[in-house]
């Protein structure tokens, strides 16, 4: 069980050190941008994760995904699994915005490389989703291609978390959820330290199962409050970035460890939950054009990978906590509201301390 640091702005989990931002952007070159739509019944948006500042179609990054529970409507996973690379930034949005955002990614890639779909192969857009229909009027189809471009162009290293971008309308354990991020540093040898960063779109969880830093937080809350009951219907997208030199097969193994961090918060990967994890490495890029030389990159030895697995689990667990603790209360369609956990339980530190007794 993790000791609670009273100076930390949220419960901190795990034993490994964080990067300076405690965010996915502690992996050098990674940036994140949002476009947030927040007016009346429209509470939604787009979040874009850029693996590097260049053209991801010309300089692809190695990647792999794990489908923990497949109740999702994403685009692009089949080709990522087959070829082991990303060709576009990673986009997050609501369920009914997936097609629009994919079109925006295709147009963006064609504008940068007019040969796509003609002299060259087509492009593989990559869009993940969660259903924000409790707070957001999802039938309004409010997300536009311009919103994707705005989120893409707004990508920075120091980005906002919580009820922003794709996370604007999301719920987590009956509280307000959304975008959360964290990082952990892993010493694989006495001279090699790598960073694993996580970003989540958190929209899952049954309140009685909610576990924070190893404590049965949700059980205590439901003893004092009424709560929603029923099966798990939410989803979560877990993104992992690392500067460790891993190939696509190894990244697949890393992505699977996101599930360990998710489980620690109280998820059982319910029947109606779309739980998908993707991991990518920034250690090298794979050129699109065959005449360019492939990278001469030594991969990390498998015998050294366990600490990266630990870092992935810790970073994902911490990112889910961050999504909860950095969210603000949001009111949306038909009077629906999700309250921030810090508003509902301002004395959360004392709660966690009491649960140790």
List the helices and strands and how they pair.
Elements: E1 31-39, E2 42-50, E3 59-70, H1 77-83, E4 85-86, E5 90-94, H2 98-112, E6 127-130, H3 145-153, E7 171-172, E8 175-176, E9 178-187, E10 193-203, H4 217-224, E11 235-242, H5 248-256, H6 258-264, E12 274-281, E13 286-287, H7 306-325, E14 330-331, E15 337-338, H8 341-344, H9 348-356
Helix pairs in contact: 2-3, 6-7
Explain this structure to me?
- With 357 residues, the chain is of the alpha+beta class.
- It is built from nine helices and 15 strands.
- β7 and β8 form a beta hairpin.
- α2 crosses α3 and α6 packs across α7.
- It has one domain: 4-Layer Sandwich (L-amino peptidase D-ALA esterase/amidase).
- The strands form four sheets. Strands 3, 4, 9, 10, 11, 12 and 13 form a seven-stranded mixed beta sheet that branches. A four-stranded mixed beta sheet has the order 1-2-5-6.
- The chain is 25% helix and 25% strand.
Tally of separate helices: 9
Mean pLDDT score: 95
Q: If you consult CATH, what is the topology? A: L-amino peptidase D-ALA esterase/amidase
Specify the CATH homologous superfamily: L-amino peptidase D-ALA esterase/amidase
Question: Structural class of the helix and strand makeup?
Answer: alpha+beta
- The N- and C-terminal alpha carbons lie at a distance of 12 Å
Could you name the key traits of this structure?
four-stranded mixed β-sheet, 357 residues, alpha+beta, 15 strands, L-amino peptidase D-ALA esterase/amidase, seven-stranded mixed β-sheet
